[in-house]
Amino acid sequence: MFEARLGSTTLLKKIVDALREILSQSTLDCSDSGIQLQAMDNSHVSLVSMLLQNDCFEKYRCDRNISLGLDLKSLSKVLKCASGDDAVTISAPDKADKVQLSFESAGKERTADYELRLLNLDQEHLGIPETDYSCVVIMPAIEFARICRDMTSFSESVVIACSKDGIKFSASGEMGSANIKLSQTSKGDVDLTVEEPVTLSFAGRYLSTFTRATPLSEKVKIGMAADVPLLVEYPIEDYGYIRYYLAPKVDD
Amino acid sequence: KTKQSNISSFFTKK
Predict the structure, then answer these.
(1) CA–CA distance from A249 to each of A19, A95, A199, A252, B8 (Å)?
(2) Cα–Cα distances in Å, from B13 out to A51, A125, A126, A127, B7?
(3) What is the mean pLDDT of chain A?
(4) Which terminus of chain A is more solvent-facing, meaning fewer CB atoms within 10 Å of its CB: N or C?
């Protein structure tokens, strides 16, 4: 038996919104310690890794490991039927072909149950090595979203250059070019840890897709090292994270 | 000229 109750549906809505543009279907791997997800987008350019620890939930029970293959569009439709302040319980028996989502209003006077058919998804799991990033930048998530949006109107590629002086985003296309530089401030809203300067080029479309996770967190962490994927990490309160990895563009 | 690399080429298959 698997059963997990969240005090507010808003958190689940934000998580699904952060995933569903990049993944149409995905498997939630549920174990005693919590819920994990790992999946590549259809083009195998990026990878999403999510963790929700069991202490994120008001109630959590997972008798044996269970994988719940879900269509995220369908899940999103079900979540639209709920109010943000409803409590939500996700449950499934051990050998399930359906998952149940039960919503309870804040005053407990309304309950609503939905069943979603599970999908049997054959998902490849990759081992993500511990990486010592040469540059780690923590910045306001809203600022990162704004920069990604502004960059993608100029060019398909975004160059990110990070050094002790700051982090610089550049895009250059037919209509012209854009450069945005953020320096570390005494206010502490942009925090840079730089061992070695790094410059890498990425597909702006994917960066913009990652910023769907902005409502989850005030801050976003960006990790860069030469010749490895970019890390864009949004914490989920104190209970987990969504990490996006994006393969760099390389010289042809 | 740059080309997009594939994410799975950076991580090990489990």
Answers:
(1) 23, 42, 11, 9, 14
(2) 19, 7, 5, 6, 11
(3) 95
(4) C
Distance from the Cα of A109 to chain B's closest Cα (Å) equals 47
Rounded Cα distance, A92 and A190, in Å: 43
* Cβ pairs bridging A and B (under 8 Å): 58
Residue in the block written with tokens 């002790």? A164
> pLDDT band at residue A43, thresholds of 50, 70 and 90?
very high
Say how far apart CA A212 and CA A42 lie, in whole Å. 17
Give chain A's end-to-end CA distance (angstroms, integer): 51
Compute the average pLDDT of residues A16-34.
96
In angstroms, the separation between the Cα of residue A131 and the nearest Cα of chain B is: 11
CB contact under 8 A, A44 and B13: no
Residue of A nearest to B14 (CA): A126
pLDDT in tens, B1-14: 789 999 999 998 77
- Judged against a pLDDT cut of 90, whether residue A251 lies above it is answered with no
CA–CA separation, A71 and A69 (whole Å): 7
Closest CA to A30 of A5, A59, A55, A62: A62
- Residue B9 phi/psi, 5-degree rounding, is -75, -10
